[in-house]
Amino acid sequence: MKKPLLIIAGEPNSISSEIICKSWVLKKKFKFTPFIVLGSSEILQKQIKALNYKIKLFEVDNISKTFKYFKKGIPVLNINYKQKKPFEKVSKKSRNYLFKCFDKANNLVLNNKINGYINCPVSKDKFFNRKYNGVTEYLSKKFKLKNKESMLIYNENFSISPITTHIDIKKVAKIVTKKLIINKIYNLSKNYKKMFNKKPKIAVLSLNPHGNTEITNSEEHKTISPALKILKKKKINIFGPYPADSFFVKKVNFDVVVGMYHDQVLIPIKTLFGNNAINITLGLPFIRISPDHGIASDIVGKRIANPMSLIACLKFLTKKNEI
């Protein structure tokens, strides 16, 4: 039996309701599998009205009813959450609600009701309260992955993956050890092959400007290059380290580009592909993806949010459902 797609509505006070509505409106054009939204039907209803969309919501008690209602409107699996106004200031108030949403989605996927899920963005600072650095790290701990997970920002042309994710830049050099690089890239290669049925060709960027491999006390000389030598012995198809400042100037002939820290690789892929990229957590026992953007507090309620990253998530999960 074909399974529906599931979208966790994410931070209540964000652009999520808008991009969900816009994606539903474009369902015939992009031909993705019908989806159900997991979240507060009351909040969604208020926000749809405030955004002036003429879209019906259908609160259902069973995910199997998605197909019955999807042509008429948006099916919703309700998780109770209340607020007075359609949109309010982002706060820690929604933390318990969001954890309930993720718990419900994890339950559904582990009980084989869905093959994976999409989560709309959350406010990392307010949701996780600095206990986790992001959804990738939260799921890693929940499923006891211990550095076996990878954040993969995916586009059909190439993908990127940072060794460290949402941490302060001043901490990067201390955290990036030879052991961490080996573990992260080994598991990245293994899990990429599982996801895409292809052994990836991987490029690794240096940490310092210009890739100082010849300087004996540099991270490139002491840490990154020795790690890559070990990975090559493990038959990982890996190259580098390359200077990060010039790497993306030429056409990227690699499946994955690995950076030492978040912005080193997130900035170029967002510049190159904009909303045509998605965030995949590799290493989980299911597919978890999200749009490659944040909650966009500055444009909430303005009807100018771009839904294409969410649509890319829906298309990707539809394709994986068919395999």
What is the residue-mean pLDDT, rounded to a whole number?
92
CATH topology of the largest domain: Isopropylmalate Dehydrogenase
The helix-strand sequence is: EHHEHEHEHEHHEEHHEHEHEHEEH
The H-level CATH homologous superfamily of the largest domain, spelled out, is: Isopropylmalate Dehydrogenase
Helix content: 25-40%
- What is the number of E strands? 12
Low-confidence stretches: none
Which descriptor suits the 3D outline? elongated
Major sheet: arrangement of strands: 3-4-2-1-5-12-11-6-7-10-8-9
| Estimated structural class | alpha/beta
Portion in beta strands? 15-25%
Number of alpha- plus pi-helical segments: 13
- Radius of gyration equals 20 Å
Supply the CATH architecture of the largest domain: 3-Layer(aba) Sandwich
* CATH C-level of the largest domain: Alpha Beta
- Assembly type of the chains comes to single chain
Largest sheet, strands/sense/barrel: 12 strands, mixed
How many structurally independent domains? 2
Q: Kindly, what is the distance between the CA atoms of the first and last residues, rounded to a whole number of angstroms?
A: 13 Å
Report what the structure shows:
There is one protein chain. The chain is α/β, with parallel strands linked by helices. It folds into two domains: 1-145 and 284-323, Isopropylmalate Dehydrogenase (3-Layer(aba) Sandwich); 146-282, Isopropylmalate Dehydrogenase (3-Layer(aba) Sandwich), CATH 3.40.718.10. The chain contains 13 helices and twelve strands. It has helices at residues 16-25, 27-30, 41-50, 66-69, 95-110, 124-128, 135-142, 172-175, 178-196, 219-233, 244-247, 262-273, 308-322; strands at residues 5-8, 35-39, 56-60, 73-78, 116-119, 150-154, 159-162, 202-205, 238-242, 256-259, 278-282, 287-291. A twelve-stranded mixed beta sheet has the order 3-4-2-1-5-12-11-6-7-10-8-9, with helices on both faces. Helix 9 crosses helix 10. The longest helix is centred in the middle third of the chain and has 19 residues, at 178-196. 43% of the residues are buried. The model has no long low-confidence stretch (mean pLDDT 92).
